[in-house]
């Protein structure tokens, strides 16, 4: 092969660096910037056009924001760096909304009582919440934020200092004190039922099944009354009232919109006559209290039998947060449907039995209601303590539900109590509120 012909042919491959540099011409200063390469897309799609922004006064240097400095960049130009200058941090910190300064953070250490072992307390824990300054060096917060408090501290907004605080008052009724109507009612959707109750075709309402004896409504309402309206709003046969457009809601919603102590006009059908009552609404004393107002739980011990009053915190302590499913059916029925006959009535149970020689055979009695002591009905825990302490009979007899009875020799039972308390490190046979 002729060597001269091979010289005229260019070898395949990449250009040398020198040749590549020679092909690149320096851009003219007047030339428009080249459009950016189109991004790869699907077949058939047109490449995007990148439009250059309109000319702006780019020659004018941008001034740094207030409180910021201009620092030189390494390549010789100047650039705005987001760094606050001397004193600027303090200036920015004080520029806050004035109303937010009234909000404080509340730090609380709680030590809750142990309702299953009422002579003890649970392990302490901490919580944080918000409070609002209301003047006079006082702060308003939620009741549960400082319930069963051991220590309370406050911190102002933007401050790193915490201040010890003193709890002046706790109003649990302000947190959960919504008024209710102390009745149980029945729907009136059946036409035969409505006719039998003397309702006209154009009348609608619900039938009163039961009225709580301790409720203020007991002075106005009676069983088999038909509630036709509440504050001028008609109640349907299914117990609903108009809500938003195209919606209905239970008439208890109307009650919840009232405050405790306010009055409501209730229209009632009784013996085929319409009556109108102006009733004062209030919170009601339930047989099983929904809340214990920050005080230690009450208890009484004799011969190893631990007596306690049932409350919702007690049920939660015994059966967990799902107590509505796990608690005994009889306790749940009383919790949902039982009504107190008097304001001081309580549901008293044998919580547990601290095993000792004197209570052999009774060890498995747990959370069983006490109905009577020596034939006398038990009204509340205080009443039970009084009857046991003043008992002069030879035997103590407790009548329990399910037709169970517990019989103990009175003198032996009281004498054995002291040794049982010592064994279980219990400081007293009864809570402080029962000693007076």
TrEMBL record:
Q: Where is the composition biased (Basic residues)?
A: 7-17
Regions of biased composition (Pro residues) lie at 26-36
Which parts of this chain are annotated as the region Disordered?
1-83
Q: The Protease Do-like PDZ domain covers which part of the protein?
A: 290-433
**InterPro entries named among the record's database cross-references:** DEGP_PDZ, DEGP_PDZ_sf, PDZ, PDZ_sf, Peptidase_S1_PA, Peptidase_S1_PA_chymotrypsin
Protein name in the entry: Uncharacterized protein
Which source organism?
Brachypodium distachyon
The UniProt GO MF terms for this protein read: serine-type peptidase activity
Q: Where is the composition biased (Low complexity)?
A: 50-61
Keyword Oxidoreductase tagged: no
Q: Identify the residues that the record assigns to the PDZ domain, covering every copy.
A: 181-281
